[in-house]
Design a protein that fits this description.
12 helices; globular; 19 strands; alpha/beta; about 25% strand; 11-stranded mixed beta sheet; 4-stranded mixed beta sheet
Length: about 425
């Protein structure tokens, strides 16, 4: 318990220490990165084999000996960790040690997009490391310690200023995304931030309100979107409000923080190679450029994540000897499904609607049944309703399916966020 309190009390110092380390590692050449990945991976796997019976059983069952590991490719001998497996690990450790053991740990939970929210427990040292990854991305995008940030967190993530902030260093303003939009605008105008960040849905909600009411916000040099895949209409709305050229995206998961990030002006994501290993695999579990993503985090020891199935589809390529993410293709199960077994993946749907970026502000596709697809859109005021509907239906008939499907375009003023704070862009009610 004393250790937990000490880690929490020294959180800022730990963040700074990890940040210095990460800023050095980001400059390493590809060969040095791979060496570092292997040494950290082997140490992680050997450690968890000795300290976590859960992983020892999994390794033994697949005849994998981490102490004899000689190459990064041998990671594929470790079984894939599904979300339910990870839930089992968390539950077993909490039952073994008791809730009291974890009472001073950092605790959070996922949004539950794919089912029951996942409880997340981290030591404060692990939390410092996760926050350092976030600070690294800000600094790589030009952040300075005197910059003022503005964010729209969930109500449970509003933070009090530390001593550092009280002295005007790393100054931040936060307001819950559940607060009235007028209050958000008021605080933004007071803060005049140089950096803005939040999940895509709530940044878009703020931008839509300002665009529709002719409210001119002081433009930041950096607008960071995370938690959801960016689409072209949302990008257009954000750039109209916050200015062109400032938008960048982060790819991450609440369980481990940032896994990949953009640098403003670039159209791809840098992977966090020295802290995480992202495998992109085809249906047969082999390496591919476009496929399902598995995550192995190289730092977290309390509740390790080894070959965790993110269920995200990633499109990758090699730049300067290391893989980068060209596109985040959505979740593995985000697709239209037809009675004959054929499917249409999310990226096709996104391409169709992204073409209407100058006519649409928001969209959502709902497959009501095998033969009924509803496209919900919020259009720009100047866009012609009939022309937009006809163009969307024509593209869906050409690129999704023509015969045996009815397409309905519903126009709304605004698509509200889901209860988890996001807007799921494709919903299939077909089981």
């Amino acid at each position: 318990m004393l250790k937990d309190s000490w880690q929490k009390a020294t959180l800022n110092f730990r963040i700074y220490t990890y940040l210095r380390q990460l800023m050095k590692e980001v400059r390493l050449p590809a060969e040095e990165v791979r060496k570092l990945q292997f040494s950290r991976l082997k140490k992680l796997l050997c450690d968890v084999y000795q300290t976590h019976p859960f992983y020892q059983q999994r390794f033994d069952a697949s005849h994998f000996n981490p102490f004899k590991m000689a190459d990064l490719s041998e990671l594929k001998n470790v079984p894939v960790l599904e979300k339910e497996d990870y839930r089992t690990l968390i539950k077993s450790l909490v039952e073994e040690k008791g809730d009291k053991y974890y009472q001073n740990w950092f605790e959070d939970s996922t949004s539950g997009t794919t089912g029951i929210p996942l409880r997340i427990l981290r030591t404060w040292d692990e939390r410092a490391y996760m926050l350092a990854k976030w600070m690294q991305v800000l600094y790589l995008n030009g952040y300075k310690w005197r910059d003022i940030t503005f964010s729209l967190p969930s109500p449970g993530h509003i933070q009090r200023d530390s001593i550092v902030q009280r002295f005007g260093i790393l100054k931040r303003y936060s307001i819950a995304y559940t607060d009235p939009i007028e209050d958000q605008v008021e605080l933004y105008l007071k803060a005049k931030p140089s950096v803005v960040y939040g999940n895509k849905t709530y940044l878009v909600q703020l931008a839509l309100h300002c665009n529709e009411n002719n409210i001119k916000l002081p433009q930041p040099y950096l607008c960071v979107s995370f938690a959801e895949k960016m689409d072209a209409p949302s990008r257009s709305v954000l750039e109209k409000c916050f200015g062109p050229g400032c938008l960048m995206e982060i790819y991450g998961a609440l369980e481990v923080a940032i896994m990949a990030y953009q640098i403003t002006g670039e159209d791809y994501f840098h992977m966090c190679h020295t802290t995480d290993i992202l495998e992109v695999l085809d249906e047969n579990g082999q390496d591919t450029n476009y496929g399902n993503a598995l995550l192995t985090n190289l730092f977290i020891r309390s509740f390790p994540m080894i070959r965790y199935n993110l269920r995200d589809m990633l499109d990758t390529e090699i730049i300067n000897g290391l893989p980068v993410i060209k596109k985040i293709g959505g979740r593995q199960d985000d697709k239209i499904k037809f009675a004959d077994g054929k499917t249409v993946p999310w990226n096709i749907i996104c391409i169709i609607l992204d073409r209407r970026r100058h006519e649409l502000k928001q969209f959502r596709v709902i497959q009501e049944d095998y033969d009924l697809i509803r496209i919900v859109v919020a259009k720009e005021d100047v866009a012609d309703r009939s022309a937009v509907a006809n163009a969307i239906i024509a593209d869906f008939r050409k690129e999704v399916r023509n015969e045996g499907v009815e397409y309905i375009v519903d126009f709304v003023d605004r698509i509200p966020p889901d209860p988890n704070g996001k807007i799921r862009l494709l919903i299939s009610k077909v089981r």
